[in-house]
User: Fold these one by one.
Assistant:
Number 1:
Amino acid sequence: MKNNCVVTFSKNVFIPVTNVSRNACDYCVFRARSPDDAYLISMNDFLALAKAKGAATEALFTAGEKPELAKPNLSSYFKKAILDSGHSSLVEYTRELCKLAIKHGLLPHCNLGVLSREELTVLRDLNASMGLMLETTAAELEAHRNSPGKIPAERLKMIAEAGKLEIPFTTGLLVGIGENPQDRIRSLHAIKSLHRKYGHIQEVIIQPFIPKPLTPMWNESPPSFEDMKEVVRAAREILPDEIAIQVPPNLTAPRVLIELGASDLGGISERTIDYINPESPWPKEEELRKAIAPFELRGRLPIYPRYIEKGWYSEELKPLIEKYADEDGLRRKESKSGLVV
């Protein structure tokens, strides 16, 4: 099993299923503003990404939340697009994409926003893990004034439902969107409470807000690095040791945060950009190794070792997990060609 000198990451392909969303957060550039810039990824476009996956073992599926409830012009676009695809909902369509991902050697991880227990159940057997950013337990933030899906209680409810279903889960905090230090502590304690009850939180992301052009928060300042250090330090003190603290290496200086308790760098893609932070390119694997030395960089799967040991995965995923996982539950080493051996 990994020790304190090991830092993990996952090689993935980032799949933006649709950018239509009912939420309109003041900091977001991912969501569509009009039907002219809206999309639903086609099966052919997804297959092109899957076939060109390189050394990736994870398919990270993201989407706007409940696109059928977006503004009328956008929801109309989405409903027509999803029907034209031969499906009836985002969850049904994404399930088909997950099946294709598995067929092409990728373990799915879905983060589609707030989902019901029924929707989680539909996706569960085809996902190695799933996720939803809590962001904050602070209610009624200005940044979320047009985002009905950012009610903290609703997000905590979904995270709890995932625990009841024994889904290995990723959540996290978005730092600098109007919350205060006390809110951050309360958010970490809320995550801790859910994990104590269900034992399903495998990692907590500590992600900084980054101002984006053409958004209402473009002129706001991002959190200072001192703020980020304090949140990582607090997270390591509050959360159980078995929960990894993840910091995105394209948005932070990871070495210092690793020294404060971070132990994971999230997903890194060789083929796709970070669609949530498109201005921030992924570092290359060798760059990461040098940046975090003397810590050792190790690959992992989207399901963490202890959940592999517990058997928290389906028969559909078993062949790939057995193929990719080593004796420690981390990712098998690669050959010179990039294939897992």
Number 2:
Amino acid sequence: MSKSFDDLLSQVEKCSKKRLSVACAQDKAVLEAVKAAKERGIADSILVGDEDQIRAIGAELGMNMDEYEIIDEKDTVAASLKAVSLVHDGKADMYMKGLLDTKTFLKSVLDKEVGLRTGSPLSHVCVFEIKGIDRLLFLTDVAFMPYPTLEDKKWIIKYTVDIAKACGVEMPKVAPLAALEVVNEKMPCTVEAAELTRLNDEGEITGCIVDGPLSMDIALYREAAEEKGALGRKIAGDADILLFPDIHAGNLVYKSIVHMADMKNGNILTGTKAPVILTSRSDNCETKVNSIALAAVVAESMLK
């Protein structure tokens, strides 16, 4: 089981070599990550975008551009469609956002002709390695789905469980989070958390253990579970997946961890036919490389 991104990178070494397609690759931060991913043996890359700019930035970074396939397309929309079509047609295994706006990138992902839509809703998973926690944590949804319904949450659990299993977690523990650990009819997220737990108990949600509603302290810390008399819960300080009630809760926790904790992280879009890497402009190179490694492991699992 991968308990850190170093473990995950070791796991990548056991995978078949992956190819990454980058839309509008003329972005210094993205090319820096692409270079690192190649040097670490994570993935080769096909760079779609303004070739002149790609080569200029590559030279600045000391990249040997002869090692990369470059497809010259200066128009942003056309570049995104060419890049995603490479994944759609099986010429690449993963799709990554470069120097283009998220709206255009997502339009390419959802394109009816060459995109990666599955007919299921899209969601987002962030994987954290946090000092003081002895395993990887999978947070969802912190960036994409604003107010997930009960049905949406069933899909989110499925996606995230699949990713956790790709990372070696045999039976992921899913904690639907709330402000408290009992059902309160005036707090709908607690009702939905209890329903998700029931569906798991009855075999409709499979491949994982669901226990909610749970407060975040009980989900993550056994000491808190003991203090609150919750050691009898299916999850008592050992959650793998934190399922947030809405994007506000998820994003606030995500940004708190990123800016206040000693951590590493990687992000992936889910609900697509192939892994999609949607990182922020503010994400550092390490986060982008971690995201590529995560996508490579997930891509390998999708072959099985």
